[in-house]
Specification:
10 helices; 9% strand
Length: 190
C-alpha cells in the first residue's frame, strides 16, 4: 500500500498533455494502483464498510481527507461539496449524514475546512456564476457574520485561514443540529 500511496502523490501536469494522453495517464495509473494495492485490505473491504469517521470536506482537488488523516481505504466515509457546507435543504449532504449516522452508525463526524478555499474566497467576492452564485451567497453569511475581524487581517492567506476556521465551526453547528445526528446523540451519547 505504501507504494500505491506514493504513486498517487506524483503530480500529473494534465494541462501540458493532449486530452487523449490525459485519459491514458489515468488508465495507466489505475493499472499500477491495482497491482500495488494491498490485496488483503481489498478482501477485507469486500465484506462491507465499517468506517470509524465521517468527513464533510471541500471539493478542492488539493484536499484528500483520508490521505491527510493517514487512513486506509474503508476507514473514512467522505462527503465533499464546495466549502464543506451543510445546508438544511441540501439533499446530498443530508443524505450522506443520515447514511453515516443511521446506517453505518459512525460516531465521529469531522468538518474538514482548509485555507485558500476557492468557494469561501469567491463568496467574499460575490461570485454570480450560474449555480455557484446562489450556493455561495449562503456561504457568504459566514463571512458577513465575521466581516470586521476577517477584513482587519492584512495577510490574504491568514484572512483565508481565519474564514475557513469560522466556516468549519459554523458548519459543525449545522451538522450537530441535523435530525439524524440528534437522534444518534440521544440514543448513543455520540
Amino acid at each position: 500500500m505504501e507504494k500505491a500511496f506514493n504513486l498517487t502523490l506524483k503530480t500529473v501536469k494534465a494541462s501540458s498533455m493532449h486530452p487523449e494522453q490525459q485519459i491514458k495517464e489515468v488508465a495507466n495509473r489505475n493499472v499500477l494502483y491495482s497491482q500495488l494495492i494491498d490485496k488483503e485490505l481489498l478482501k477485507e473491504n469486500m465484506k462491507g464498510q465499517e468506517p470509524a469517521y465521517f468527513v464533510l470536506a471541500c471539493v478542492d482537488s488539493r484536499l484528500m481527507p483520508s490521505d491527510i488523516m493517514g487512513m486506509a481505504p474503508g476507514d473514512v466515509l467522505c462527503h465533499r461539496n464546495i466549502a464543506n457546507t451543510c445546508f438544511e435543504d441540501d439533499l446530498s449532504v443530508n443524505s450522506a449524514i443520515t447514511f453515516a449516522t443511521d446506517v453505518l452508525q459512525i460516531k465521529h463526524l469531522i468538518i474538514m475546512g482548509h485555507q485558500d478555499c476557492g468557494g469561501l474566497m469567491y463568496s467574499i467576492d460575490g461570485n454570480c456564476k450560474v449555480y455557484m452564485g446562489e450556493y455561495l451567497k449562503r456561504v457568504r453569511e459566514v463571512y458577513e457574520d465575521n466581516q470586521d475581524e476577517i477584513d482587519s487581517i492584512d495577510c490574504r492567506l491568514r484572512r483565508s485561514q481565519r474564514l475557513a476556521e469560522h466556516n468549519a465551526i459554523h458548519q459543525a453547528y449545522r451538522v450537530l443540529k441535523h435530525p439524524a445526528v440528534q437522534k444518534a446523540r440521544d440514543e448513543t451519547g455520540y
